[in-house]
Amino acid sequence: MTVEQIVGAGLMVLFLADIFLTVLYARAGTGLLAPRWNRLVWASIGSVAGLFGSRRSIALSFAGPLIVVALIGFWALGLTTGAALIIHPELGTAIRPSSGGASTDFVTALLVAGNSLSIVGGGDYSPYTSGTRMLFLFNSLVGASVLSLVLSYLVQVYSALRDRNALALTVDLMTGGTGDAAQMLARLGPDGDFSNATSELSNLARSLAMTKEAHHFYPLLFYFRFREPLYSVSRMSFILLDLTTLIETTFDRQKYGALIGSGPVSSLRDCARLLLDTVDRNFPTTDAGHSSAVPVEHHKRSYAVASDVLRNAGIQTQSHAESYAAQRSRWEPLVRRVAPTLGYRMSEIDSRSAADEGLN
212 or 286: which carries more pLDDT confidence? Predict the structure, then answer.
């Protein structure tokens, strides 16, 4: 083998390993090339979207599909280039057309490599030795396998995306379209009756756990950003974390102790944190300096508004503004790192702070 062929074989192994880790091993952050490539494409799209001004949100909504197309093209180009480097030295001798002269330039090698990765014997060039025949057979098996794996992977990604959007829409509808966790609580327990709340929260926790694992299995989900804030991971997670924080700090413990200490409440809180942690670790979110600390007084004002909503709904409350502010200060920085990266303002995530533009 020549040095060129050794480099080509190494390149094919590298891209096949990347496809294996991304599609079959399916863990966020384990790919060799795909995570870096996706971040590069995302950064490029973000830079272009910035030129659209007020329409930046619309431009970013194309990021997910464009990254899918770019990733498939990246893998196809890498495998084809690797195969071309192996084939190039054999052009005109072991690999040649059935009639006429043989071109030996690298562009021809790319064409032959592409044909060998798709259909055995396709194109004008054919192998004439045992070694090159085995190479063409191997390439055709690689091409067919990668195509089926990628198609299956994309089906799973879009299925997980549909489930994520369904959960986000469910959460939004449970708030009455307000995005306010206090409104959601008022609807879960009309006149203070939370007899069915545990079951409802359990269903949400199950769906949220599936969404969290989907983001761990299919990192491409990170890049699907919709124009409507209600579909954002940051808004959905914020509402559910605010919901559990309000339950733990606002509800009367004598009357609602069973709900406060229930598994679904703690599961929602922990799973929402895990989802945000997964995105924060594997998505190019803003640095910690960007998400500056929010004054405690802001949290207390938000708590007071939420308490009024709950009392007006006939729910017995207790005043623990300090506890609410302390708990919220632990999880809100995660939201503030994730939301701006995907082009959302905090006023779109936290409906109770929409009037306080100085914090966004």
Answer: 212
